[in-house]
Amino acid sequence: MDIKVYNKALNKDVADNLIKLIKSRTGLENVDDSLCEKKITEFLKSNRKALQKLSSAENFKRISRSKEVDSVVKYARSRLRPMYGLFLNKDTSKIKEMLKKGENGINDVLFMHVSSGERMKFYEEFYKRMFEVTGKPESIIDIACGLNPMSFEMMNIPKKTRYIALELNQNDADNINQFFSIWKIDGEAFKHDITKEPIRYKADIAFAFKIFDIIDSKIVERIIDELDVKWIAASFSTKTVSRSNMRFKRRAGFQKMLRRLGLKYQTIDFENEIVYLIEKV
Ligand SMILES: C[S@@+](CC[C@H](N)C(=O)[O-])C[C@H]1O[C@@H](n2cnc3c(N)ncnc32)[C@H](O)[C@@H]1O
After folding, report:
1. Residue ranges per domain, the chain?
2. How far is CA 119 from CA 52, 67, 70, 152, 268, in A?
3. Any idea which architecture 92-279 has in CATH?
């Protein structure tokens, strides 16, 4: 991995080991290297001393115990955790085996991702109430999907429903493709960074569950605008990091943006999640 900041570059051994160290924490194992690189770069841009120390090291061993390494690793983990660390809580290498167990394995898999795990108690009701408003979709695009496509059975829709799943994490995308193939669902999952690549798939509904809080609001606006769908179902967690209920569940900034774009919406409240159903046509 090449890491360049201003006119300085990190030795490959230093860069690779830094990334390895950042990812060595439970919950961060699946973070893409490029995202770690981005966080390291971000930190070094604002910390000249660390940049000097890290870029002048010939190998990682020489600096591995320095406070600069400690700070960059802490910084990267603290930024990545809200995106990933809170979401995966077990050893994901077992997912493939669990999927092979069919029906019995799927609930265990959904529980592994905190986002889908939190929805397990009300998944059927979740889709039922959404589809009462939007109608049952014939095609779905699920952006930043995590493991959510594996809740397909609880949607109560035919297997011929076209399902496009986009996820930054290659492992998740691979597991979802395996799920689609075992369950014979007309779906495909792709590794796709929604902050960088435009979303060019057309569908009846887009699911954007628990993602808009963790990406830049300008990018959220770009995505809302470019999605070629009839409905967007965007959800937000209503639990704080310490698991208590949020006082203000609604997202004022998000609502303001929807009004500015002239989009009509309604909300549905669940015990730990609020869903905005946004009409795009
Ligand atoms: C809070 S989880 C939500 C997962 C799923 N939507 C759900 O609610 O069950 C956030 C997911 O977004 C993914 N993600 C984060 N940044 C992303 C990006 N730039 N592009 C695509 N996916 C991203 C993470 O890998 C993670 O699986």
Report:
1. 8-85, 92-279
2. 46, 41, 36, 13, 14
3. 3-Layer(aba) Sandwich (3.40)
